[in-house]
């Protein structure tokens, strides 16, 4: 019993330390978005980990919408939950695109645990505004994490089922769009084998565009 408590305390301490490490980045992100946000216009927020953070031309891709990018690199679903007020809720978005789960799987979290955290995020967003559209972006395949593909696919199935059951929630599948049959399209990535180049983001754009409401 004491051993279990020690492990839980250790993991909790790690989580708190990780979230504290995001404080400065989150402040920088919110300061930038606060400076460009027009409160009188409806807002779409893209948030999540580095695959969102590194999508530099989001506003240019959706010129008819007010788009804010609040992605923060290296984040997991629990980090987004912690910073949800600053990164999402304060902007009163009509639609929120969420990309979390990629780093969670890499950190050996189970799909069920990740789904539970995402459900908490959804509940907080819905409590703030029940009619907010939420889009859960599937975990993407990548060169550096291809060996974990079975776990990513398991998570994606859970995300899709969640979206099917809930009103105002959509699921955006980028996994299969980045494959050629069963093989990964390796030309979609930069040198680190994890993050995407322009061709990768082109695929994301075409997958997500129909879900802009």
TrEMBL record:
The keyword Metal-binding does not apply. InterPro entries: Ester_Hydrolysis_Enzymes (IPR051532), SGNH_hydro (IPR013830), SGNH_hydro_sf (IPR036514). Pfam families: Lipase_GDSL_2. Keywords: Signal. Gene3D superfamilies: SGNH hydrolase. Residues 1-20 form the signal peptide. SUPFAM superfamilies: SGNH hydrolase (SSF52266). The keyword Magnesium does not apply. GO terms for molecular function: phosphatidylcholine lysophospholipase activity. Residues 53-203 form the SGNH hydrolase-type esterase domain. It comes from the Bacteria. This is G-D-S-L family lipolytic protein. The lineage of its organism: Bacteria, Pseudomonadati, Bacteroidota, Flavobacteriia, Flavobacteriales.
